[in-house]
Amino acid sequence: MQTSITQPRTPDIEEADAILRSCVHCGFCTATCPTYQLLGSELDSPRGRIYLIKEMLETGKATGKTRLHLDRCLTCRSCETTCPSGVRYGQLIDIGREIVEEKAPRPLVEKLFRRAMLATIPHTARMSVALSAARLIRPLLPKSLRSKIPARQKTMPETAATHKRRMLMPDGCVQPLTAPNTNLAAAAVLDRLGISLIKASGCCGALNQHLSDPDGAKDMMRRNIDTWWPHIIDGIEAIAMTASGCGLMVKEYGALLKGDADYAAKAARVSELAKDISEIIGRENIDSLSHAGHGMRVAYHSSCTSQHGQKLSGKVEALLARCGYELTPVADSHLCCGAAGTYTLTQPELSSQLLANKLAALEANGPEVIATANVGCQMHLASSTSLPVVHWIELLASSSNKPTIKEETV
């Protein structure tokens, strides 16, 4: 693609220009774009959004229409899996969204809503207060809203054993409040494999990054690096990530902080150490877990950040199969469930349509449980199905025949 960009040549503009020039207009991306499949609009496809960003950079102008179509993008990166030219669309859409915020400012109500999300969701203590209040009034809410508020889980016992092999495991911001058993299950499984975990708290920065607050995201990255660095120096084997969205973000710290002289090298090392929990377990001897599934039928939802972002397609499914689970077929497994970070809040109608389609595909072949790899997907799927929805690592940690989500009284 030829470009003629008139904007000042900042590092981000240079990056966007290089990405735009790598696009060859082939349109393969439209075949796998969830929003294009729903809306049938070229402007709601990756190719259409690429043209909108190109036009914005060349003319220096943008409108609410530009912002609308960029907002509708799930950042699922399914297009990156399909693209034969290796267009780094995820990076381009983040740059485009940051620029459109300046060129076509949002209405005040939208600005305040986004600021409220950024002031609450990435901060576990604040989110805990908000979630407790929501759970308190949950019985009084309409069913459509009540289903969106996750009930408290009864947590499994915490692993206390220590081993010579050590890894760092970040808790994240929302996961400790909504799916605490994920990291507890990971710790239990790794304990069986002779690995101890060092816990670390804090948000990875993904929410800020994708809501056009790159400076806030980088502040979180630097804070995490400062917190994790002593453990890295002390010789941890890996940074074990259980939420695939957070894992993708941490794996990209090196790229996002490459222009920071003080943190570039450290960020690159952090990204090098970051491993999805499936990558870690996949290289271990898991014979002791080989009969954990007892033939249980599992529908696995491969999160977008796992299959398209981290390129880990098939890894979890292979592990579950090795451990005795029966994987049920899932049609259109490449498509997003509609969770996509804050997409359920910013684009509720599209998110609901994607959720309905995804659950129809997951439930079609009679599974006993739905498993996924990301806390956002887990919460979103659980809001509209009667089946248990768990992080897949809980299946490996479970000694029962049928994992369930146990809820405490709200």
Report a brief summary of the structure:
The protein contains 23 helices and eight strands.
Characterize the structure shown.
- The protein has 410 residues and is of the alpha/beta class.
- It has 3 domains: 11-103, Alpha-helical ferredoxin (Fumarate Reductase Iron-sulfur Protein, Chain B, domain 2), CATH 1.10.1060.10; 165-282, Rossmann fold (3-Layer(aba) Sandwich); 287-397, Rossmann fold (3-Layer(aba) Sandwich), CATH 3.40.50.1860.
- It is 51% helix and 8% strand.
- It has 23 helices and 8 strands.
- The protein has a 4-stranded parallel beta sheet, with helices on both faces. A two-stranded parallel sheet has the order 1-2. Strands 3-4 form a two-stranded parallel ribbon.
- Helix 22 links the parallel strand 7 and strand 8 (389-391).
- Helix 1 crosses helix 6 (89-103) and helix 3 packs across helix 6 (89-103).
- The longest helix is centred in the middle third of the chain and has 20 residues, at 214-233.
- The relative contact order is 0.11.
- Residues 400-410 have low confidence and may be disordered.
